[in-house]
Recover the amino acids of this structure.
């Protein structure tokens, strides 16, 4: 048993088996039985094929981009993979010495390095790096196939990763994941949002564990305390079961609340919407009483694929969700790629400052055909009148004008091809950067609605990378400058009579509910597990009180003072913990499909 302390990113508590993804998984040096020889050899052949395919793809790509000479290195590596001596050695170690596949490869190649190092011939010595490179490629494919088998054959999986990127998570079996552990990643990074939307715990900032742990190890992740226990004792497992049953009871009670109206004690209504990324999220949200969708993230149609999803594929999915919520509204956000989300067909396009680089709307405007295809799909999905379209990370008014031209052109194309669509679909933008927040009065006349993305607004206002756990103490949603902007946006929207909502993580944090209502926000959009907590909070307060709270907060001069004030005001700390805890995977399947 070993305990590790990290950062609490998503609350909840769960136990399961560890599956390590990306660079950390260790090669196991274990003996295999005669029975396993056949499958190890098969796995070896698959990995060889995959490695060859990868090398030939790289060779073709580099030839095209840089020329034949530069690509020669990959042809040498391809020859190494086919070398009969090398293949025989590995197969011998597996079938006669009964060593595991990874171990056999590692050992064979170590022998080869040593021999090469001793040679006088400098040509061979220089090939050592190529050998190392080939080894890494082979081992990478072997580990990937081991992981795949593990994911397919186990349930209650705890995903551990150095850094969890959207491209890693799209192919994970979400219904089997009970927790996440990461080495890097802050409160509003991709992993955090995913964990919260699944209602599972995430602890970040843990690196030591990766040195000891291996795939299949048992682990307990406690997102309330930011603690991970590797190979827990029986007693620790028993206490986990007890805590889980207490939480289950509380969640059952809360589910009754899903059917109640969302209004304050003095009768003012608030609209609670959901942040979703799939039909399963939509079902969970409906079950928790969401009155529509305030943010439908669509990145999955553009990540981890050879090509972006077609117009028809997008249309079918968007329409299914629009129909499911009809007549309630569904806000579909166009692709928000870049940052830590890399696009289909363009893996590894890295920039020195990805969050300040070609991200979100900037990418979309640079590839108008892909962008327009998505817009056409959304316009068609809105034929019944309950879909709104929204654009991420706008930074200047020219972008809004350009978008509108593309929407007009998409509409003309649809009309020409006799396809039905919503001619009057409301157009909105996300307010995620200070330039738009400060000058919101220039944007409001040009759009039908706005939604504040506080995850990015905090990041860009405070110049703090939202995914970097080492500066997470500086990521302050309650910083007076952020609150100033939030209040300003709300006041201006009211003045212009335009709907303003919040769809960043702040909206789902019930400790901030009073504050956001006090500023005038009446539409809040969040992941399904938070809907009930926020609703309970709303039902327990008077709207008049929230205005007073905000008036008081306005006078406080630092995030920590505001935090203290909230702490006193929101005094039941156990309840606060549970309230903001999500439901630990307790969102049941909804048969209302
Ligand atoms: C936000 O920035 O607050 C937001 C909702 O968008 P995302 O988290 O997808 O960047
Ligand atoms: Mg954002």
């Amino acid at each position: 048993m070993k305990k590790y302390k990290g950062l609490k990113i998503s609350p909840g508590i769960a136990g399961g088996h560890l599956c390590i993804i990306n660079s950390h998984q260790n090669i196991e040096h274990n003996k295999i039985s005669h029975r396993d020889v056949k499958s190890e050899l098969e796995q070896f052949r698959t990995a060889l094929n995959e490695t060859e395919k990868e090398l030939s793809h790289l060779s073709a790509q580099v030839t095209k981009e840089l020329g034949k000479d530069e690509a020669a290195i990959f042809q040498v590596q391809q020859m190494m993979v086919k070398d009969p001596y090398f293949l025989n050695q590995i197969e011998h170690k597996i079938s006669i010495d009964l060593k595991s596949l990874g171990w056999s490869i590692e050992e064979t190649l170590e022998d080869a390095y040593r021999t090469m190092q001793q040679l006088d011939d400098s040509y061979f010595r220089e090939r050592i790096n190529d050998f190392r490179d080939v080894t890494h490629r082979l081992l990478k494919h072997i580990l990937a196939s081991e992981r795949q088998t593990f994911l397919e054959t186990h349930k209650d999986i705890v995903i551990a990763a150095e850094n969890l990127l959207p491209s890693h998570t799209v192919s994970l079996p979400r219904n089997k994941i009970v927790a996440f552990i990461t080495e890097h990643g802050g409160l509003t990074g991709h992993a955090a949002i995913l964990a919260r939307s699944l209602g599972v715990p995430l602890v970040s900032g843990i690196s030591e564990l990766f040195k000891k742990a291996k795939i299949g190890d048992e682990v307990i992740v406690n997102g309330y305390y930011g603690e991970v226990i590797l190979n827990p004792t029986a007693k620790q497992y028993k206490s986990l079961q007890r805590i889980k049953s207490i939480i289950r009871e509380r969640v059952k009670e809360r589910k009754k609340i899903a059917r109640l109206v969302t209004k304050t004690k003095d009768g003012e209504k608030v609209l609670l919407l959901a942040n979703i990324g799939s039909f399963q999220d939509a079902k969970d949200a409906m079950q928790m009483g969401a009155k529509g969708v305030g943010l439908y993230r669509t990145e999955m149609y553009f990540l981890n694929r050879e090509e972006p999803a077609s117009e028809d594929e997008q249309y079918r999915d968007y329409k299914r969700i629009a129909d499911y919520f009809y007549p309630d509204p569904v806000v579909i956000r166009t692709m928000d790629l870049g940052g830590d989300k890399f696009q289909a067909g363009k893996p590894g396009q890295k920039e020195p400052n990805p969050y300040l680089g070609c991200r979100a709307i900037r990418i979309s405007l640079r590839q108008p055909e892909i962008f327009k295809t998505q817009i056409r799909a959304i316009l068609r999905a809105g034929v019944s009148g309950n879909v709104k379209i929204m654009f991420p990370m706008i930074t200047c008014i020219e972008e809004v004008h350009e978008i509108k031209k593309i929407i007009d052109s998409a509409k003309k194309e649809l009309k020409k091809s006799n396809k039905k669509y919503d001619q009057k679909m409301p157009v909105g933008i996300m307010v995620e950067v200070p330039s738009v927040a400060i000058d919101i009065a220039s944007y409001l006349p040009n759009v039908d609605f706005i939604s504040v993305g506080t995850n990015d607004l905090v990041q860009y206002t405070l110049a703090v990378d939202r995914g970097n756990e080492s500066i997470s103490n500086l990521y302050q949603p309650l910083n007076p400058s952020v609150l100033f902007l939030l209040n300003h946006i709300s006041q201006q929207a009211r003045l212009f009579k335009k709907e303003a909502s919040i769809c960043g993580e702040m909206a789902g944090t019930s400790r901030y509910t009073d504050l956001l209502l006090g500023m005038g926000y009446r539409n809040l959009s969040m992941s399904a597990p938070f809907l009930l907590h926020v609703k309970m909070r709303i039902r327990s307060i008077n709207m008049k009180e929230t205005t007073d709270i905000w008036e008081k907060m306005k006078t406080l001069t630092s995030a920590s003072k505001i935090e203290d004030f909230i702490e006193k005001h929101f005094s039941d700390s156990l309840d606060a913990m549970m309230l903001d805890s999500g439901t630990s995977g307790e969102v049941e399947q909804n048969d209302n499909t």
Notes: The two ends are 44 Å apart (CA to CA).
